[in-house]
Amino acid sequence: MSPYRDPAGKRSAWSAILAGGVLATGLAAGLAQATPPPPSARATAPAAAVAPGPAPSAAVDTLDRHPLEIRALVEPEAVLGELGPALISARLASDPREVARLELARANACRVVADWDCQREAGIEARRAAAEAGVPHLAIRGLIAESRARIAMQDYTRSERLLAEAELALKQDPQPELLADVLLAYSSLSYTIGKHALAADYARRGLQVLGESEGLAVRARLLRNLARAQAQLGEVEPARESLVAATRVSQRLEDPKLEAELYLEGARVARIGGDTATQQRNGTRVLEMAEKLRNSQLRGLGHEVLGLAAADAGDGAAATRELLAAQRSFRLLELQSDELRVLRELVRVLLRHDPGSPQLAPLFQRFLSLDNAIAQSERAQAADDFDARLKYAERETEILRLESESALARERSEALAQTNRLGNLLMALGLVALTALAALFWVQRRGHRQLAEAMARLRERELEYRTLADNANDLVLRIGANGERLYVSPSVRDILGIEPGELASPRPDLLHPDDREAVGQLLARVMRDGGTETLRYRARHASGHYIWIEAVVRRVRGADGGQELVYAGRDISIKVRAEQALEATRARLRAVTDNIPAMIAHIDLQERYTFANAVGERLFGHVEGGLVGKTVREIRGEAIYSEIRPHILRALAGERVTYSGETEVRGKHYHYQTSYVPDVRPDGVQQGFFSFTYDITQLKQAEQALETLARKDSLTGLANRRYFDERLGAALARSARQQVPLALLTMDIDHFKGINDGLGHAAGDEVLREFGRRLAACVRAGDLVARVGGDEFAVLVEGVGSLDSATGFADKLLERMQTPITVEGAARQVGTSIGIAYSHGRADAKALMLAADQALYDAKAAGRGVWKLREIG
After folding, report:
1. In this structure, what is the dihedral angle of CA atoms 803, 806, 810, 815, given to the nearest 10 degrees?
2. Active site members
């Protein structure tokens, strides 16, 4: 689960940074020039405002910290490896204080590598050990560590309770740096849930608590929180000033993670200023620090910075590459909200720069799946919250009623027992009548007074219950068996805009005409059969418009012993509008998928189609009853199904599968590429898989045509230089492996330039074609003939038995060239010179070609029209 996702729909901390842009070294350095850092800081920090380097300082920490906790800032993995033995030793030595300090070191290391479960567990263990040791400040630090982990895990309620507990403990035993740390956590929590003004206020309060030389790490983070909250509130200049101040403080620390946070926080200002180059430098620096810290979440954020910078610069390829890397990092960490944010930017980049990309469809489907999962989770959470509040109210009401009845019964029983005792006393004291009568009168008066007090308490309890109902936001009704309202809560004024007295009797005219019958039947059924039911209907507001109401109706026994209905309803108009908007969004998404040039489908665990876009209907033609509900075997046929079934089984086993194939559909031949993406619920249960099928017929045809063009010489039809080089390398490898000789013959046409210049290029081309034909006619079936230059040709002869075989081929070609070539109606004598390189199986391509060329030069030097031989290897 992402540490930044906000169930209320607010942006995460990082999405807020990216919404404003990413920060720049240059811009922040310019800010730092206005208020330069100390000389020692300038000497160690090449970019003073953004890239703080460690420097020695005075006392910067007033807390009791283990050396491993400080070292965890720069070597978290190493510290985690050393902590195990250290903790065992401390526990064996029965030293709870040392255990608490080591657990806080573990919490710090886990925070640096973004392992929130580890940080939470370490905070809990630190509290236990500190409580055993009787060291309250260590226990408070454990509370803060656990609270920060729970903020990252979105457990905001529990986090706030832990911080309140820490704040209460600090009131009894004050410590300024710890109080500032608590306020820092409050600031981070407020920022995460979108309360930016409150986040800034907590940050300022934390800064006021700290002394000048106290808690420099906390001070730097408070300034960082203040800067990002100010930026979200539109206070750009104050945000820059806060960031410069945070940088100056950080220069006195050695905290790589804080340094990375300042780079990221700084990234926002650079993007606001349009400084793409600095965004890229900061993103690169963040990636370097992520590798140093082995922090996968920080790595994803660095790639996201670089991707957004590339998108701003118009570099679609770089933006796609970096955003894909960020998406993979967030997906591996299950940071769904961060992954959804990156997917949104990635789809925009692909639509702008490469709308035909095969990655677009699966990425878009992933985006839809994440968006839907998050929306469903939020709706489920809202529903659970409502049910929990309703059940809580019911329990509280029932407890009040039972307590009142119990108290009244107890007091009545006591009064009755007292009266009986008085009667017995009167009979026993008959001889003292006057004394007995006086005593009886006194006791009776006391009993009456107790009974009156009990009745007063009962009326007070009833008043409390009525006050609760009168002040509830929900509309509460008590409905008698005849339909009359025995009670109408005042909230009817807010919900329907009418007075309670106007609802004292049934008002069917307030119900929407389409809902009247259903509401009446439900109320009658509950009154008749009992139980609890929920209804949803529309009611007319006093202003004339209709609102949606959702109500729970239950049959109960009234005070008079008769049956009555208790109704609790609330205005859900906003929720209904949201549901309607969601349905409209689904319709739009359906329109999008129907117009994507790919067949998109969802197949369940029984291999049945549960969804298919319009492309499938167009591809397979009209299928009676549609594709949905039918199996893949029924739609694709037995032959194709037998080929693709292994891929389906892999997808149902949870594996992403991509394959290509050919098929005949309705008499037309297709090349296709299909990707199967498993459909896994948030709880890990697989529901089937998504299928994305693309028609790649034209692409395959183009590839085949390109392959042919890439290997053939267009003029002679012989192999070209590229294909010749490929075959030569393979032939040399075989020759070396099998120790079989190999011959390479290179040749050109003697005095070809004179032919080309004197008779023209058309005549030269005809000579080249005829020369190639004669050359091809002289070789064996397995030998390769290639045109490797203008009038340069080569013949590769494998498995040549001897030197005589190689020279015999050269003689044959020279003899063949004795026959004149007809050019433009006239016979012309065309000669050639041949260089032969003969390898015994140990030469490489370069040496073989060089030997053949040198032999060719020898042949030309010998007067042309001859061959010359060189042996190598």
Report:
1. 90
2. 791
